[in-house]
Amino acid sequence: MLPVIRVGQARVTAGLDHRPRLDMASHRAVFGFPPALPAAELVAICEQVDLRGRGGAAFPVASKLRAVLTATGQGKRRSVVVVNCAEGEPGSAKDKMLLARAPHLVLDGAMVAASALHASEIVVAVAGDGPHVRSVTDAVAADGALARKVRVVSVPDRFVSGESGALINAINGKPALPPGIKTRASDRGAHGMPTLLSNAETFAQLAVLAVLGPAGYATVGTAHEPGTVMLTVGGSVSRPAVVEAPYGVPLGHVLDVCGAQLPSAVLVGGYHGMWLPADVAYNALVSRAGLAVAGGTLGAGVVLVLGQDTCPLGEVTRVAGYLAMQSSGQCGPCKLGLPAVSRSLEAITVGAGGVDELDALRRATAGVRGRGACSHPDGAANFVASALDVFAGDLTEHMFRGTCGRPIRGFLPLPADSRDKRLRVDWTRCRGHGLCGRLVPELIELDEHGYPRVHQVPVPFWLSKDATQAVDMCPALALSLTEDKVEPPATAAVSTLGELPSPMSLQGRQQPQAVLTGRAWRRADLDAAEAWLAELGGRDLSGPR
Amino acid sequence: MRSRSRVQVEQLGEIRPTGRGRAAMILAVPVLSLLIPALATVIASAGGHSQLTRISAAIARFLLYYSGVFALLALTAAVAAGLLASDRTVMSPEHRILAQALHRTASLIGISALANHIMLEVLAHRARIIDGFVPFMAARNTFYMGLGTLASDLFIVIIVTGLLRRRFTSRRLLWRALHATAYAAWPLAILHGLLAGRSAKPYVDWSYGGCLAAVGLALVLRYAMTMRGRNAALEWPAPAMSSPMPANMLDFEAAQLRGSGLRGSALRGSARPSLPPLPALPPASVLSPLPEPRPSGENLPPAWRTADEYQDR
After folding, report:
1. What strands, in cross-sheet order, belong to the sheet with A121-127?
2. Which pLDDT tens digit goes with each residue over B244-270?
3. For residue A349, is it within any domain?
């Protein structure tokens, strides 16, 4: 569980500096009882502070409430409240943190909404297993009123499980996949009833808003975006953390607080988000408007920092491969297009791709936009396109020199499942028959000699049949599906950076300027850089193989 | 604090990987092919004069007469398709995938028909159950019945190991050896078909002979192609070690050796004219040693001075 850091006033993280988890009694001591608000008043206060969904799409909560009220005839018919805590984004931990440490705040918010809407049920959807699941079930069991009203469901821990349509499908007993025909959850959601679906942090903010009132809520934040926001800061920082910060705080301050060291770029908005060059990121303001001006997006508040000692294209390639395999395999342009994007990126990263490959990459990236049941292809395309933009220099170096000379340290977090299987080739047996390339073109591409180039990603569920068939049909018995891992765990690399000598961490804004201009280096920094290089000297610097 | 009981977490939205029903589908074919004729035989032997009894009797009679032939035909097709699937010269990868699919389908149909054939023969009291699995135990026509049983046993082994092929990636040669016994089992099955049962019509004899010849020819071709593929590397124009070294190579070596006081093996005994001497390289000089770093003072180069200004404290 990530530590929690607070910048400025406490809101949803109030009380967490005294208790690892706020149980019912300590929660009431901090927040008291939220007032029972009638629907009209709840809509009004949400509108006053412009409360938005915190799951990434930033849809106004007031509009959602109004849509459910309309569909239920102002609360005359039954409705459902769904708390979405299936954060499938590997870099995000804020919703899990809230459920694990302040479950009653989230449940209070859900209860406020449910009583205003006269909702018959509250569904808390979690993914995977962990302290957050135990914490929320304990919290529900601790209160009779909650235990009667709340259902806790667990959905598969996949990237698209948190998509609202996929979540509604899961609650209705279908596979957790995005539906092909869009229906608004507020019209027909869980059990076919009008549903208010929002992210766990949204309900926590709603509870805070109900307790403080709009005026009290708006004492922090910007005029247009009052209140605080939860961020998950990770990557090559010495203190990865969940951060509560008021809207409008400089992102640079948050990065300094989390111990970002000499970043080359910062990813905002998670794996559907955008890359910002370090100087732009340090000067951006944390708000939807502030990050939009900087050319990024706030999304679900995921901030991932990329240090200078890793190959940025390699990092992007790892994530692109992950995103391709997280496609649910339903929509053709996504299930064929994203692997093509990922393969081209991989070819450029290992130095096997030139200008033609970049051309293919750009075309494939543009070709997936807007062509799926959910926003997964668009988000993945944004991620790759902004990487091509920000890492243009590295791209050129990889295309014309084969490598940038830096190892891939795996700073960008990816979930690892021990049951994941990968395709492997026994090169001493492979005779380039080429059957596998026809059977799983998503995973195997044939080179100019007819030998397979296997995409090193876990085989997704929708390709398991094709991959098995390729193994079965290999005339040389050279192909196999194996469970062993190739990538080192990402946490090791991060902890190494954390152990760097202290002079590396500069204060305030000096840091990126020092990097960018190359002038403002101090003696202490030079010493630290030398120590750093000496440390790297013991490692393989020959670049990705 | 009324209910302290744990709240159940429901697992929802499970996503199943594709291709999970494969084993069930593969098993369904032989099971169905056993159930239908067994049912028909049982209904027919129960007697009576209903339409159902007559249809069942007809089905049982037809299958008793032909299921052996079907097994032989399907397994012949399987052997031929398997041979075809291994070809690289004529077949494209796409066609080879199709041929492999045909090979598998034909094998599955063949093994189903074989099971059907054995069961019906047993039900018709023309053979005992033991004759279906242990060769050369039959009361009459022992040799040719035994050949059929032997072939059937081999085919069962081949098909079971074929289904488990992906488990054999580390014991490839064992798998190949087991699978190659098909070339022994199949002629045995043909002999059994021709000589164990009713006497065949001449066109059947001729077509069996034709099949044997065709598969034999294909096998020879396959062997030849494999050998050619294996030896392909040797057909490349290898650098002939006995031929004289190219002139520029000699020049290079000579230049390398000149002045070193050594004579290269390549130069020894060659009748080449002596080469003009190369211009001498400028003599390498030892670089002046680095000056001792001075502790401080005005004589520091400007770059150092700037660095000093940035020093802490």
Report:
1. A195-199, A80-85, A121-127, A150-155, B9-11
2. 444 444 444 444 445 444 444 443 444
3. no
